[in-house]
Every structure is written in C-alpha cells, then in structure tokens.
Amino acid sequence: MSPSLVSLERVGLVYPIYSIRAQSLRHAAINLAVGGRLLKGSNDVVHVSALNNVSFRLHEGDRLGLVGHNGSGKTTLLKVLAGVYEPSEGKIDVRGQVSSMLDIGHGVDWEATGVDNIKIMSRLRGLRGREIRERMDDIINFSELGGYADLPMKSYSAGMSARLMFTLATSFTSDVLILDEWLGAGDAAFLHKVAERMTSLVSQARVLVLASHNFALLDSTCNKILVLDKGQVAFFGPKEDLPDELRPV
After folding, report:
1. What CA–CA distance (Å, rounded) separates 206 from 198?
2. Which one, of 158, 22, 178, 179, lies nearest residue 96 by Cα?
C-alpha cells in the first residue's frame, strides 16, 4: 500500500472554557452544546475534551465521509486536519498542500472592490502577483460579476457575494481537500455550474475529507466512513462495512 497522505495517531484535543466555572459544571453539561466531555480543570476552569484517542490513515484516492451528531467533534477534527487547532496529544501528519473550506468568506473586506478581494484572498492562499493576474479573468467570468468587479463588495447583492466567495474558494487545487458540507452558492441559474465545479475540484484532490449530515451524499461520494461520538471514533473503515446501527437515518 502507498504511504499515507493523512495520518492521525491517538490524537486528542482539550481546551478551556473560561466563561464557565467548575461550580456550574452540572448546569453547563446540560445546556452547553459542545462535543466531547466537560472536565473540571485546575483553578476552577472547565475544559472540554473535544477529541479523544482519534486514529486513522488515508491514502491516495481515499474519500472520507465524516459522520456524527451535532457536537460529536466533526468540525473540531476538520480544524485539526486543516492546522487551525494544534492537538493536545498524539501525532498528526498531513502531506501535500491542504485546502480547507471551513469558512469560505474568511479574509473578505466588504469595503474593498471585488478585484481587490480576489487579490487579498488569493494571497491568503499562497498565490502571488503573476498567478493572481493569470486567474483574475476566469474568477470574474465564472462568478458572473461583470462590471461589479470594480465596485465595493458592500454594494453586492447576497447572491453576487456568494458567487464570488464560492468561486474564490474553489479556484485552488490541493492534495488534501477538507470540506464542512458540500459547497453551494448563488441562485438557481448558477447551481449547475456549482455542481460541475465541485465535482471537478473533488476529482483533482488526492484525498478528500467531507463532513455532512447528508449521508446519501457521503455514500455516493466517499469510499470510507468515520463516525464520531463524543469526540471518539465509533467506526472507521470502508463504507460497506458500516454497521446498520451507526448508519444515519
């Protein structure tokens, strides 16, 4: 088997919640919508064990579907894979260029023009002058901005803003693609372009990690499934081996 592109070994993540004190732990456990377990730490500070002992490997061509109830740790795991969070314990190794679409609006300056935002967000993704100029016309054309590209984004309709942010987010290929739900944007007339774009983007990635509540989508897209329950792995393996009792309704 080829070397793994994504490898997690006994990864755990614990972080403090300073707004909740340990004496109100029982009340917090009932009312706080977080994954994992609430722990009483030192200095009367409550900690959340968001991930615990998470281990798996992904190889070239793997498409992993991430399943779990709200608060199970899916988004936390995606952020660990994307490098947003540093694990508290364990080892993580992600090889190649990573593209995470956890917040496709990250970096948007609403006072700046569409063209300037294309430059800003392209730089955030590691592109430089010549590369940005080469992509500029394609991004403007695909997002259907026309003359609005030279106007401030605060003057855009919601649909125009969504089209531009989607286009920017899907304009960069990667080895490891991380998605929190399948991206969609714009009005009905734009959606057919969205579907084609997403299919192309996924096909170019060497590894895909996709979290979604739509199990039919995961079943049709992925070859492996990982089920998270309170920050722990309840199942990881080929989708055909997923037990019926863990299959989302």
Report:
1. 14
2. 178
Task: Classify residue 128 as left (phi > 0), alpha (psi -120 to 50) or beta.
Answer: beta
HSE (side-chain half, CA atoms, 13 Å) at 43: 5
Distances (CA, A) of 209 to 156, 187, 228: 32, 26, 14
Return per-residue pLDDT of the chain as tens, 249 residues: 678 999 999 999 987 766 555 455 444 444 444 455 555 555 556 677 889 999 999 999 999 999 998 888 999 999 999 888 899 999 999 998 888 888 777 778 999 999 999 998 888 777 788 889 999 999 999 999 999 999 999 999 988 998 998 898 888 778 999 998 887 776 777 888 888 888 898 999 999 999 998 999 999 999 999 999 989 999 999 999 999 998 887
Rg (CA), the chain: 20
| CA–centroid distance for 132 within its chain | 24
Burial (CB count within 10 angstroms: exposed 0-12, middle 13-18, buried 19+), residue 170: buried
Q: How far apart are CA 248 and CA 148, in angstroms?
A: 43
pTM: predicted TM-score of the whole model, two decimal places:
0.81
Tokens of 107: 């970096």
Task: Tell me the three state secondary structure of residue 223.
Answer: coil
> Which secondary-structure segment (H or E) carries 132?
helix 129-143
* Residue carrying the six token digits 């993704």: 125
- Give the span between the Cα atoms of 69 and 195, in whole angstroms: 26
Q: Quick check: 26 and 52 in contact, CB under 8 A?
A: no
